[in-house]
Design brief:
The complex is a heterodimer. Chain A is α+β, with helices and mostly antiparallel strands. In chain A, 57% of the residues lie in helices and 15% in strands. Chain A has one domain: Nonspecific Lipid-transfer Protein, Chain A (2-Layer Sandwich). Chain A has seven helices and five strands. Chain B is an alpha/beta fold. Chain B folds into two domains: 170 residues, Rossmann fold (3-Layer(aba) Sandwich); 226 residues, Dehydroquinate synthase-like, alpha domain (Up-down Bundle). Chain B contains 16 helices and nine strands. In chain B, helix 7 packs antiparallel against helix 8. The chains are: A alpha+beta, B alpha/beta. Bound molecules: fe (ii) ion. Fe (ii) ion (FE2) binds next to helix 6 and helix 10 of chain B.
C-alpha cells in the first residue's frame, strides 16, 4: 500500500509542476497571439481596458492571470498579484485540470462535464475559450490539437507556419 | 448507453403530478414546517383565473397570507425587494410561485432575500454564494415548457446597472413542483404548441449535446415520447385533460434532463433571436430544432437516429435502416412543425420570415440575421454544442431557418 501511495502522491507533484509550466507557457502564448493573430487580437479588442481574467484550479491550485492593459497591450501576470479579477475560470480539481492541459480533453468537454466554473460574464468566457482554442492550434501539432478543439480550423499555410513561428518565438522570448 | 467518463446529476425537487395535485400543497408545506404561504404570480396568470384555483385549493386548510400578482415580464430587482418586504410585513413563512419563468425567478430572488434576511439581492449573485437551505418554495408551472420548476438558476434584471444578474445554487431549487393540468388547460393552442416544442428541444438537446449522460438520457427519452404522442392531440383539443397532464409531466422530465446535461446551439441561436428581435422562446425553439440536429449530424447523428423511436414510434423506427434514422428524425420533426402549423391555423411559425409581431409586421427582418449571429457567440450554451459554431456558421444556419429551407450540408464545415 505504501508503495502505491508514494506513486500517487509523486505523480500529483508532477501533475502540479506540469500544470504550472503549461500555464506559464499558454499564458505567454496568449499574449503573443494577441499581437500576432488577427482573431485573437479582435477578441481582445472587444474587452474593456483593464479587463482581467484568470484560469486556475480548485481549491488553491496553480493559476494564470491575464490582463488587457490598454488597446493592443495584453499582459501575462503569472499567478496574479492581488488584482481584481473580472472573469474567473476555475476547474473543479487538479486531476481534471491536468486532463485539459495535457490535451486529453477539450475545454468544451470539460465544461460539458461540469468541471469548469465560470464566475463573471458569459460572453467574455466564450471569448476566452475561443482564444484558448486558437492558441492551442498554434502551439500543438495537428494530431494533438485535433483532440483539444472541437473543429480543427482550415487556415492558410501563412497563418499556420508564419503565425506559429511568431507565436512560438514571442512565447519563449516574451516579446 | 453512452458513457461520458464523468458526470454528475442532481434533482432535489419533490414532484407531485395529478389532476388534483394542487390540493396536496397544504400537507406538503406542513411537512416542511410552514403554514403561512405567500402566492407570487403575474397579471396574466390572475386574468386566466389560475390564482383563484390555487387559492381555492389552499383554503380552508392553509389560506394564502398574501398574493403578490404584479411580477413583470422580465423579473427585476426592484420587484424582488418589494415582494420581500411584503413577505415580512404579512408574516409569511413559505412561497408558492404560480406562473412561468419570470415568476419562478422572482420567487427564487424573494426567497434569497427573506431567508438570508438580506438588504440587497446583489450580494448573493453568482454561483454557489448561498450556503444553506432557504424557505420552502412550491413551484406551480402554468406552461408545459420551460421546466423552470426544476432548475437551480434564476436570472434577475438590475435596471440600475443595466445587467442581468445570474444566481445559481442547488438551494435555489424549489422544494416541491406541482404538476396540475388545470394550470395549463386554458393555454391557447399556439402557445401550447410553442411551449411544448421548447420542452421537446430541452429533451432532444440534452440527449444529443456534450453534457449527455445516462440519467439525463432516461428522462429525455420519456419526455420526447410523451410530447410526440400528446402535443398535436392537445393542440387540436385543448381541453384534453389526460394530454395536458402528460405534457406537464413531459416538460418536467425534459427540465430535469437539460438542467443536468445542458442544451446546445438551438438554444444558443434561439436566445439571441429572442434578445435581438423579441420572438417568444418556444417559437425560436420549434423553428431551429431541425437545423441544430442537421448541423451537428456528423457528430451526434447516431444519437439523433436513436430518437426516431420515441418520436415516430416502433414501426417506423424498425422499418428505417440505421444509417437513415438521423435524417428521418429531422424530417419527422419538420412534419411535426407542419402539423402544428395547420392545427393552429398558421399561428405556429415554421420559419423566421413567417413570425410576425402583434401588429402583423415581420418580427425578424432579414437584416437582423447578422446581429443575431454575432450575439449568439456570447451565449454560454455554445459550450455544450457538439460542433464548433463561429459567426459564419451561425449566419448560415440563421439564413436557412429564415427561409425555411433545409441546411445545405455542403456548407457545414466538418473538419
Ligand atoms: Fe428552452
Amino acid at each position: 500500500m505504501g508503495h502505491f501511495r508514494g506513486v500517487s502522491s509523486g505523480s500529483r507533484v508532477m501533475q502540479r509542476r506540469y500544470i504550472a509550466f503549461m500555464l506559464w507557457f499558454v499564458g505567454r502564448a496568449i499574449v503573443a497571439a494577441s499581437k500576432a493573430d488577427k482573431d485573437v487580437k479582435q477578441e481582445f479588442e472587444a474587452f474593456p481596458d483593464g479587463f482581467t481574467f484568470s484560469l486556475g484550479s480548485l481549491p488553491s491550485g496553480p493559476r494564470m492571470v491575464i490582463q488587457k492593459k490598454a488597446p493592443g497591450k495584453v499582459r501575462y501576470l503569472g499567478q496574479g498579484k492581488g488584482e481584481a479579477i473580472d472573469l474567473n475560470l476555475t476547474i473543479k480539481h487538479l486531476q481534471a485540470f491536468f486532463m485539459i492541459l495535457s490535451f486529453q480533453e477539450s475545454t468544451a468537454t470539460a465544461n460539458a462535464r461540469a468541471r469548469l466554473f465560470v464566475d463573471g460574464g458569459v460572453p467574455e468566457a466564450c471569448a476566452v475559450v475561443r482564444v484558448m482554442d486558437i492558441v492551442q492550434v498554434y502551439l500543438l501539432p495537428k494530431v494533438i490539437a485535433k483532440l483539444a478543439v472541437k473543429r480543427y480550423p482550415v487556415w492558410s499555410w501563412r497563418r499556420h507556419i508564419l503565425g506559429r513561428s511568431v507565436v512560438y518565438l514571442r512565447t519563449v522570448t516574451g516579446i | 448507453m453512452h458513457n461520458p467518463g464523468y458526470y454528475d446529476f442532481f434533482c432535489g425537487v419533490k414532484t407531485v403530478a395529478s389532476h388534483q395535485a394542487l390540493a396536496c400543497i397544504p400537507n406538503l408545506l406542513r411537512e416542511l414546517g410552514a403554514s403561512k404561504p405567500m402566492i407570487i404570480a403575474d397579471k396574466g396568470v390572475v386574468a386566466a383565473g389560475l390564482v383563484a384555483i390555487v387559492e381555492e385549493a389552499l383554503s380552508p386548510a392553509m389560506p394564502a397570507m398574501a398574493v403578490e400578482d404584479d411580477v413583470p415580464v422580465d423579473s427585476d430587482v426592484t420587484t424582488v425587494h418589494r415582494i420581500a418586504k411584503a413577505y415580512h410585513g404579512k408574516g409569511c413563512d413559505a412561497l408558492i410561485a404560480v406562473g412561468g419563468g419570470s415568476v419562478m425567478d422572482t420567487a427564487k430572488g424573494v426567497n434569497i432575500m427573506v431567508s438570508e434576511e438580506a438588504e440587497n439581492l446583489l450580494d448573493f449573485s453568482g454561483t454557489g454564494v448561498l450556503k444553506r437551505p432557504l424557505k420552502p418554495l412550491v413551484a406551480v408551472p402554468t406552461t408545459a415548457g420551460t421546466g423552470s420548476e426544476v432548475t437551480l438558476v434564476a436570472v434577475i434584471n438590475d435596471p440600475s446597472i443595466n445587467r442581468k444578474l445570474l444566481f445559481s445554487s442547488p438551494f435555489l431549487l424549489p422544494d416541491i413542483a406541482i404538476l396540475d393540468p388545470r394550470m395549463t388547460l386554458t393555454l391557447p393552442p399556439h402557445l401550447t404548441a410553442a411551449t411544448g416544442m421548447d420542452a421537446m428541444t430541452h429533451a432532444i438537446e440534452a440527449y444529443t449535446c456534450l453534457g449527455k449522460n445516462p440519467m439525463s438520457d432516461a428522462f429525455a427519452m420519456e419526455a420526447i415520447s410523451l410530447i410526440s404522442k400528446h402535443l398535436l392531440p392537445v393542440v387540436n383539443q385543448p381541453d384534453d385533460k389526460e394530454g395536458r397532464l402528460a405534457l406537464a409531466v413531459a416538460a418536467n422530465l425534459a427540465g430535469i434532463a437539460f438542467s443536468n446535461s445542458m442544451v446546445g446551439m438551438v438554444h444558443t441561436l434561439g436566445h439571441s433571436v429572442g434578445g435581438v428581435c423579441h420572438v417568444p422562446h418556444g417559437t425560436c425553439m420549434s423553428i431551429l430544432l431541425p437545423y441544430g440536429l442537421e448541423y451537428n449530424m456528423h457528430k451526434s447523428g447516431p444519437w439523433t437516429g436513436e430518437l426516431l423511436l420515441p418520436i415516430a414510434g416502433e414501426a417506423i423506427y424498425a422499418a428505417t435502416p440505421r444509417e437513415l434514422r438521423a435524417e428521418k428524425t429531422v424530417a419527422w420533426l419538420r412534419e411535426f412543425n407542419e402539423g402544428l402549423y395547420k392545427a393552429t391555423e398558421g399561428r405556429h411559425s415554421r420559419c423566421f420570415k413567417e413570425v410576425t409581431t402583434r401588429d402583423g409586421s415581420p418580427a425578424v427582418p432579414r437584416e437582423a440575421l447578422g446581429d443575431i449571429a454575432k450575439t449568439a457567440l456570447g451565449d454560454g450554451s455554445i459550450f455544450y454544442n457538439p460542433e464548433e459554431l463561429d459567426f459564419e456558421d451561425a449566419l448560415m444556419v440563421m439564413e436557412a431557418a429564415w427561409e425555411g429551407l433545409p441546411l445545405d450540408m455542403d456548407f457545414v464545415k466538418t473538419a
